[in-house]
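Format is sequence with structure; example below:
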Amino acid sequence: MKWSRKNRRRTPTAERIAERRKAWRMAALWTLRGALTLVVTGALFTGAARAQKWAVTSPRLALAEVRVLGTHRVDANEIRALAGLTPGTNLFKVDLASACRGAERHPWIASIHAARRFPNAVELTVREYAPVALVNLGGLYFVDAAGTLVKRAQPGDTIDVPIISGSGLTRARWEENPKDAAAILGEALSAIATYTASGLEKDAALAEVRVEEERALTLVIADDGAEVRVGTRDDLRTKLDRLARLRTELKRRGAHAITIDLDNRTRPSWVAVRFAATDRLER
């Protein structure tokens, strides 16, 4: 069967006109949306530019105060000076990272955090090193519980902490084998922490921890100068419990010990005491 041109299906004229109108309406709608988007975007950019200009020029946001929090032994004015923040600087233009780097130059500052506090202040929160001892390495250096050498002690420093010294921990050893020396220092610091936790520190403050060869430790009591040989840190808390009982008994008797030896490896429960009159008591 053959098809003629007359048999081809044609779209009615009214239907084609309606489709064109629909297409034009869609095009107009998208054009209008695009125009509105451009207008709104332009307005937002203009508003943002004006807000930014106000923010960086407004006298209400000029730096007027630098607050320093967390200090104990450091003068807050020293921190302000090292931070180098200039009054009147716009708060958005303050370089917080630079302020932190400057303040961290202070030897007692372990870390510092800076934050803007609107409308016109910067807040510096510091964490100071907490020294727990002085270590003798050819000079006395403050050290914290983590073994960090904080600073060399100066005549004006008045922090009362035990001294760590002895032939087992010297500057030469520190320079030749720093890892091993740091481990020895850590053992001495641990001994100080254990001594403090035992409660002995309350009436028998620790003056010195002497590190001998083979890492043997001798504790020196501040009030009477008694030397307490504890040997290695093995069973240190048990040894210190015996020391506490012994000191109670000596106090009851009115006796004064020059040396106390808690490192009896043959008889661990025995304590050897030497008195001022060279008497010896074993128990």
